[in-house]
Write a structure and sequence with these properties.
- This protein is an alpha+beta fold.
- It has a single domain (4-137), classed as 3-Layer(aba) Sandwich (Chemotaxis protein chec).
- Helices cover 38% and strands 29% of the residues.
- It contains three helices and seven strands, in the order αβββααββββ.
- The chain has helices at residues 4-20, 56-67, 76-98, and strands at residues 25-27, 36-44, 48-54, 104-106, 110-111, 120-126, 129-137.
- Strands 1, 2, 3, 4, 5, 6 and 7 form a seven-stranded antiparallel beta sheet that branches.
- Helix 2 (56-67) crosses helix 3.
- 38% of the residues are buried.
Amino acid sequence: MIAVIPVVRQVTREVLETMFFSEAEPVACGHTEDCIAARVRFTGNASGELTVMLSPELARSLSAAFLAEEDDEVTAEQRGQVSCELANIICGAILSRLHPSSRVALGVPEAAAPDYGEAIHQCFATPEGVLAVTLRMG
């Protein structure tokens, strides 16, 4: 069985670097209450959900980089949409590494409440803010 936390760390770092032009380092948890959260549920040979939580500054910066906009031009709606896309990309990449030959269907990414509960959880520091990833598998 593949160790899950190293995969979460590697995938998250790769996604932020290649898709959003940002660096991320795993850190001890330090959550903020005012984060933007997005969730993707998945079913099939593996089932569960992945939630990403971004500090407002990071959500704005990643959205601007992803959309090729200026930070101050990114709307709240765009920050939510890009957060959902980030959750979708990270979830798909993690599942393809953990279950490469399994059939797994991703649901539609959606805005969510922050999820810091009992699950596989990792926080990351970036130059732009904080990101947390929570993975629940059943």
